[in-house]
């Protein structure tokens, strides 16, 4: 059974109802690390938002473990979003008035699991190399450090899926490598299924599979030995 599957997925956007994603069909197995590549405007972010249930397709089906997202009840959808899906954006969107640790614990707070997640939150902070920044505010940290906090936040609920839209897009090459290494490790150790949009061919080549979009169409789907 595929962890994530899209069938005949299409998306229209704007007043012109332009077809942005065209008859996409693919599935992702549990534990895969997939990069989504393609030129600017090819539909990568649009697709990633739909995969992560932040947006809906115009036509077609998105399913997680054979469960059609459109047929899920509200509580089921909530649980999928809050517990099983993590999202990392190009910019970190940390809350400026909260410390690194408080930001990381935000999803746990929302889920009413603040107490039981505290220790784990500290351990992920440590694993992204920021134990000594635990009580710092975002403005007291560098861009790369903030992005690592955002990754830690996306992982606090131990999601099965992690979606990332150019997570290294605003970082220099040293920080990009560091963030990418964290993704590799999460994928390996936590068996998290990752779909990452990237412009960086070197990073894409270092993932297990590359899905290439051109004008909203899937033109290449390549698995590589890792
Ligand atoms: N709300 C919208 N209304 C109309 N068109 C939109 C809307 N959002 C995105 N588009 C169009 O959809 C297409 C795909 O956009 P998308 O943001 O998915 O591209 P992308 O591959 O992520 O590009 P980039 O690499 O620049 O981030 C673009 O042509 C864009 O102009
Ligand atoms: Mg984009």
Question: Main beta sheet, described?
Answer: 6 strands, mixed
Question: Segments where pLDDT lies below 50 for 5+ residues?
Answer: none
Question: Tell me, what is the CATH class?
Answer: Alpha Beta
Quantity of strands, as a count: 10
Shape call: globular
The strand order across the widest sheet is 6-7-8-3-9-10
Count of the domains: 1
Distance between the termini: 22 Å
What small molecules does this complex bind?
adenosine-5'-triphosphate, magnesium ion
Mean pLDDT: 94
Structural class: alpha/beta
CATH topology: Rossmann fold
The CATH superfamily is identified as P-loop containing nucleotide triphosphate hydrolases
Radius of gyration: 17 Å
* CATH architecture label name: 3-Layer(aba) Sandwich
Proportion in β-strands = 25-35%
Measured as a percent range, the helix fraction is 25-40%
Order of helices and strands: EEEHEEHEHHHEHEHEE
User: Treating each run of at least 4 consecutive H or I residues as one helix, how many helices?
Assistant: 7
